[in-house]
Design a protein that fits this description.
The protein is α/β, with parallel strands linked by helices. The protein has eleven helices and eight strands. A six-stranded parallel beta sheet has the order 2-1-3-4-7-8, with helices on both faces. Strands 5-6 form a two-stranded antiparallel ribbon. It comes from Microbispora corallina.
Length: about 260
């Protein structure tokens, strides 16, 4: 039986943005899928047309949503997440719901202190209005270029925006921003879990939304666990690294790492 793989998208991208990865992982012998977040439409167009369905979903809602999906699988899946999907993958791994996890440019978890200015600017479309906590917020093409497409051409960034971008709930960003002041924050991850599966943290060196400093600080949060925690940097890549023209290189690094874990 093929090992299941669940791809988890982050804010502002539709689950179908994982389609090239799914094809590649199927060719490699896995059983991949990319379920959307609660409230997501089946397509990019449906998600854009019904942003109210996406609004008000927080981190705990998303974790519960994927937990139900995982509980319906024949075995624990490999979890691969991007941005907030990377945080969700780490939470699920810490709960022993995954055989392994790959967190790509993952949103900051509780305990991570650096908040670089570029990350604040990327989140400004949400944070500029406190009411956005309970709303779905869309990015303009210019905002998408800063947050995602700054390491690719303006033309490619625009194409990615038009193809994959959808509204995103503001609530997860507010939850992450206040995590270090909330002892019960949903952004808390069981980083001390000694029995969890292996974890790979991937960062893009030019990422504005989740700068390398955030990923390195996340890595330090796992220092008290003997479980495998690895790190890989793509120095010239930004937040679009899972969907832009260089996606395959990231996917192949992921596949090679899984092979080294005998998964």
């Amino acid at each position: 039986m093929s090992t299941p793989v669940i791809f988890i998208h982050g804010l502002w991208l539709h689950a179908s943005s994982w389609t090239p990865w799914i094809d590649l992982f199927q060719e490699a012998g896995y059983a991949p899928s990319a379920p959307g977040w609660p409230g997501d439409g089946a397509t990019v167009e449906e998600s854009r047309a019904n942003p109210e369905a996406i609004a008000r979903h927080g981190i705990d809602d998303v974790v519960e949503h994927y937990t139900k999906i995982i509980n319906g699988l024949p075995e624990r899946p490999i979890l691969i997440g991007h941005s907030f999907g990377g945080m969700i993958a780490q939470k699920l791994l810490g709960l022993d719901l995954g055989a392994a996890a790959v967190a790509i440019d993952a949103a900051q978890i509780k305990g991570v202190l650096p908040v670089p200015l570029t990350a604040l600017r990327s989140a400004l479309p949400v944070f500029r209005n406190p009411a956005n906590r309970n709303r779905a917020v869309s990015l303009t093409e210019e905002q998408f270029r800063y947050a995602f497409g700054n390491a690719v051409s303006e033309q490619e960034s625009g194409e990615l925006y038009r193809r994959w971008s959808i509204p995103a709930p503001g609530k997860p960003l507010f939850e992450a921003a206040t995590a270090n002041f909330d002892p019960h924050s949903p952004a808390k991850v069981a980083t001390g879990n000694e029995g969890r599966g292996p974890l790979l943290l991937i960062t893009g060196g030019r990422d504005h939304t989740v700068p390398e400093a955030v990923t390195l600080a996340t890595l330090k949060q796992y220092r008290h666990s003997a479980a495998v925690t690895d790190f890989h940097e793509f120095p010239d890549r930004a937040h679009s690294l899972t969907i832009d023209g260089g996606w395959r290189e990231v996917a192949e690094v992921t596949l090679a790492w899984l092979a080294r874990q005998s998964l």
